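Chain A, query sequence.
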Amino acid sequence: MWVGAPHPDPEGTPFEGRLQLARLERIASSRAAATDLAEARTGFPTG
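Chain A, predicted structure.
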């Protein structure tokens, strides 16, 4: 699940930057990961 802001943290460490990029790449390349992010942000469908 995505935690944090979707932009680089200028005060973050290089490791944190690589970790954030890896998470973003997973969301961009995986429909399941994108769905998980959307549902976590907006709530699960109730219909």
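DSSP finds two helices and no strands in the chain. The helical segments are 14-29, 31-42.
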